[in-house]
Amino acid sequence: MVAQLKPLISEQANLTFERGSRTKHEYNAGQIYAMADAKESHNLIAGNAHASLHRQLRQKPCRVYRRP
Length: 68
Description:
There is one protein chain. This protein has a two-stranded antiparallel sheet with strand order 1-2. Helix content is 38%, strand content 12%. Strand 1 and strand 2 (31-34) form a beta hairpin. The protein has helices spanning 11-19, 40-56, and strands at residues 25-28, 31-34.
């Protein structure tokens, strides 16, 4: 039995695919993998970390960005 190789997907094809998708995917070495949804606890921790950094860096030459 011979394993079937999946065709590699270009970065541009991945971007086009991702823009039209309702779920998030990871692109790695020409392959696309579905990602699990973030849990509420993860979103809460990430939001609190962002707010804390933003508050601490106010009036400084730094900016805090969150990933969409």
